[in-house]
Amino acid sequence: MPSFTRAARGLSGRREATSRAPSPGAPGPDAAGRTPSATGPTAAGHGRDDRAGVSADRADTSADRADLPYDEADRRADRRHRVILYGGRVLVGLLTLALWQLASGRWVRAFFISSPTAVGGRLVDLVTTGELWPHLTVTMEEFAVGIAAGTALGVALGLAIVYSGIVGQWFHPYVMALYSLPRVALAPLFIVWFGIGLASKITMIITMVVFVVFYNVHEGVRSIDPDLLDMARGHRATRRQTLRWVVFPALTPWLLTGLRLAVGLALIGAVIAEIVGSSAGLGYYIKTSSNLLDITGVFAGLAVITTIAMIFDFLVGRLERRLLRYR
Amino acid sequence: MSTATGTTAPPKLSVRDLRLSYRSGRRRNLALRDVNLDVADGEFLALVGPSGCGKSTLLKIVSGLVAATAGTVAIDGQPTRGTPERVGLLFQNDALLPWRTVEDNIRFPLAIGGTPLPEQRERVKRLISAVGLDGFGAYYPRQLSGGMRKRVALARILAADPDVFLMDEPFGPLDAQTRARISADFLALWEQVGKTVVFVTHDVDEAILLADRVAVMTAGPGRVKEEFQVDIPRPRSIDDVRFSAPFRELRHRISQSLRTEFEPTDAGDGR
């Protein structure tokens, strides 16, 4: 257990190390205060006695991370940690699939639950025959346009409500009321209003996405450290400068959280709208398979959707690591 | 380098009959009551007082972050409006931008003021050296200790280069050793530039060591109660001053003046 947490600390330390190191001439981050020779007498001297302040300053507990020495032993512990982490993950997945395969046709009739091999075979068919692409591109198009529009609208709405003062307060409860509407129930309505094409799907996705983003922006703006805003004001920053230097960076983690949730919600919205009324898309494929009692087809469609969700979640995770490396 | 100018010179900063009341629930509370204060050009004034006496609020009013209920603040005889240009406030917590590097944090006032980028970088480099943070320019605040973050905040206010430095218990949350070292460094820096400073602290020793004059404030509603001239020659060595007779005598008098403020009977009778 202790070696485990140490490995985790080492891991975060390493990430900082690689993402920082601005120029070859700069001293290594781990030389911050530990090795006086690397940083020169002044800085090292301050580094040393200032660290005494760390214990007194509770807000400061992570400061020693910069000073963590990172050597071969840590590297090995990291590697072991990664093997255990990812190896375990893959194992859980494989075991689940194996159990499914085992159950199929033995404990449960294969007709009801299909099997991993059957689903895999179907996926290969879908790709090789090219049947997948029209469905995939339709859904991806809805997803891309919907999530972009929904996020933009959510950000705009969040900023508008926070910064419009009393007017925003008038609208706020209604936004929250709309949020609590079961949007699934609106899908048929959107089909009636906007037809079975792209527009109804995008509308559906927007209603799914906009509230999460709105809520995150709203909370994010309210949680900005007032001292930072005062600091900007004290330096006579304009509104635009304040947005650029303080507000948007402070919102970034909130936006990323919103985006992460939005990926899943957007896919749900797209599939629901497609199931309710469409002529193409992954949801359409799932619905037609289901109508034909083709359970393998349903699972194949779900597998594709899950894969899309995982890819985008991974991409947002990557973006997060990049944008939030200051943490 | 600098000498405290006499009372005949026009005050750099002048606070007149400043009053601040605020609503708390159904009542109106008085935070500051008729505060009067003059600070000469190049003078180092320390404000001491019990916590909650409105010292910090006074600085926020002078820097334009809080609007006073009544009274005026004037700089060079000109009443201020909004955020005055020649005033810089050093916050109690360092108020560094966590998503910006040390360099960018120090660069902030220059970027806001529209200094060309090459010149920004040049000045930032010098400031990083001045506060003893060479080699840490690319670090994020999270990676620094409390004392180092203070140095960054100090460099940032030096980058803004105001005529009047307002410092709100700037070294408060640090441990005694770090604090002594930073105070000494700051004192040395200040003795070079000789700008006007208003320094809020609850530490009487720190006030005497740094300041030309110490003003004692009353418990809320805050008011300037008494002022003490610090006639200890500069440049001062903190370690030597601490054990000198004038220091001990002054500390005794200021502590006396403060002590009455901490007694509950005095706090409430609205003297």
UniProtKB/TrEMBL annotation, chain A:
Subcellular location as annotated: Cell membrane
InterPro entries documented for this protein: MetI-like (IPR000515), MetI-like_sf (IPR035906)
Domain ABC transmembrane type-1: 136-316
Region Disordered, annotated ranges: 1-67
Start-end of Low complexity biased regions: 19-36
Highest taxon above the source species: Bacteria
Membrane-spanning segments: 83-103, 143-163, 175-196, 202-221, 242-275, 295-317
Record keywords, A-Z: Cell membrane, Membrane, Transmembrane, Transmembrane helix, Transport
Membrane topology: Multi-pass membrane protein
Cellular component per GO, a single term: plasma membrane
Basic and acidic residues compositional bias, start-end: 46-67
Biological processes, Gene Ontology terms: transmembrane transport
Similarity comment: Belongs to the binding-protein-dependent transport system permease family.
Protein name as annotated: ABC transporter permease
Automatic annotation (TrEMBL), chain B:
Keyword Nucleotide-binding included in the entry's annotation: yes
Listed GO MF terms: ATP binding; ATP hydrolysis activity
Domain ABC transporter: 15-244
Keyword field: ATP-binding, Nucleotide-binding, Transport
Presence of keyword Transport: yes
Protein name: ABC transporter ATP-binding protein
Provenance organism: Streptomyces malaysiensis subsp. samsunensis
